[in-house]
Amino acid sequence: MVKAVRTSCQMVFHFTSSPCDAAPEGYLLYMGKDKYENDDLIKFAWPEDVWYHVDKESSAHVYIRLPRGSHLAGKDWYKNIDPKVVEECCQLVKANSIKGNKLDNITVVFTPASNLKKTQGMDTGQVGFHDQNMVFKEKVQTRKNEIVNRLEKTKKWVEVDLEADLMKRQKEDKAEAARLAEKTRIEREEQEKKWKEEKESRSYDRLYDESNMTKAGELEVDSDGEVDFM
């Protein structure tokens, strides 16, 4: 029997959320086609990605990719997603859960992808959390076919190299950090030069004033040695 060899590329489903103020063209929503892709998504998620899953039931792992740098906007950045888009993520997770899709009043959990944890001994596709305080829940009363059907119309099955994409992203981040560091260095040096010039200018002005100043109460004597009382 020939054992299947996994390639560096993965087949991932892409969806597009409804437009909102923060994303006029909609957000990218994505999920793996099976538990193996789910493991890869955990490993190669981006810092701005937020993960959704039906609580205590088997379901797809659905991610939303927020704009780059969103994770730097305070500790609650992942809780500020448009409620309409959150509902779409929850409906997509529910629709892709064999048991959860049939139940009403289910709970969907969500957390930053960076909070997902894989430990030795976990089954493929199984996940834990680094910080339980960063895990939040949304109640989903029932399936809303109008939402699921709209998302299904945007569905694309995309072959991607998740590891290569993440490495490219990290390289870009490193280059941007270096550019900002260099910009900060140049600005600091220019400011220090300006302060030094201002300090030297004040010292020169003070020296000039002192050399031309007659001290208070000092008597001026003319060339004949006589005191001028005028």
TrEMBL record:
Domain spans labelled NFACT RNA-binding: 11-131
Q: Cross-referenced Pfam families, in alphabetical order?
A: NFACT-R_1 (PF05670)
| Bias (Acidic residues) ranges | 219-230
Comp. bias regions, Basic and acidic residues: 180-209
Q: Where is this region: Disordered?
A: 180-230
The UniProt entry's sequence similarity note says: Belongs to the CCDC25 family.
Identification of the protein by name? NFACT RNA-binding domain-containing protein
Q: Which organism is it from?
A: Hanusia phi
